[in-house]
Design brief:
Blueprint: H1 3-17, H2 22-33, H3 43-55, E1 60-64, H4 70-78, E2 84-89, H5 92-105, E3 111-115, H6 118-128, E4 135-138, H7 145-154, E5 161-164, H8 183-194, E6 199-208, E7 211-220
């Protein structure tokens, strides 16, 4: 099986299962025109995130890594009425693009975008005693993943679902001496998850237009 085959299947499934969405297409175009890297989730992955949000009947979702707002729009659309997506972005330019995209998608009123290093934003949220989140999506710098998991746990409750993107990276996650793409941060995050008795977890390997990768899903049990 080749990347071309994976992409062809991804395209087929997207056409079969997801209606055309000019708004999301425009979001991707604006992000590209603004010079943002093409590393957002795919449409099928965005749909998965929205399904998880809806299945949990989530009112509060935390996203670590906004980029251009593409994944955030998928999740914001799945929130319960009156729900909020808190999304953290370190890059001010990315945040500016995302704000415009949230406005264009009609979800800006449901989005709380905070700019700054995620570790600092998370610490401030903990100190402020913010209400726990129903779902946390982590898709940012991989070196920060272990800290993001730990801090997200402090902002969770029993039943909260943690979803981590880019956990396989073409299979390189098994190479303990490799640090391309932040592999060591990814492996350290898996160690944190495996060593945390409050979490039950699995990893789903994926192929498609983003190549060979995967998600880790960890459920807070108590």
């Amino acid at each position: 099986m080749t990347d071309a085959r994976w992409q062809a299947v991804d395209d087929f499934l997207t056409r079969k299962l997801l209606p055309d969405d000019p708004t999301l297409a425009a979001v991707e175009q604006r992000a590209a025109s603004a010079g943002l890297p093409p590393i957002s989730v795919s449409a099928m992955e965005g749909s998965l995130l929205q399904i998880l949000v809806r299945a949990l009947r989530a009112r509060r979702v935390l996203e670590i890594g906004t980029l251009g707002g593409y994944s955030g729009i998928w999740m914001a659309r799945g929130l319960e009425p009156g729900g909020t997506l808190v999304t953290l972005e370190v890059d001010a330019h990315h945040a500016e693009v995302a704000r415009g995209n949230f406005e264009q998608a009609g979800v800006a009123d449901a989005v709380d975008l905070r700019v700054g290093p995620a570790s600092e934003s998370l610490a401030a949220m903990r100190e402020a005693g913010e209400t726990p989140f129903d779902l946390v999506f982590i898709d940012a710098d991989k070196s920060g993943y272990p800290d993001y998991v730990t801090q997200s746990l402090a902002l969770s409750r029993p039943g909260t679902l943690l979803v981590l993107d880019n956990m396989v990276r073409g299979g390189q996650v098994i190479d303990d001496g490799d640090d391309e793409w932040g592999i060591q941060g990814t492996r350290a995050a898996l160690d944190v998850i495996a060593g945390e008795p409050r979490l039950v977890a699995t990893t789903i390997q994926t192929v498609g237009i983003r190549g060979y990768d995967g998600f880790a899903l960890a459920l807070v049990t108590y």
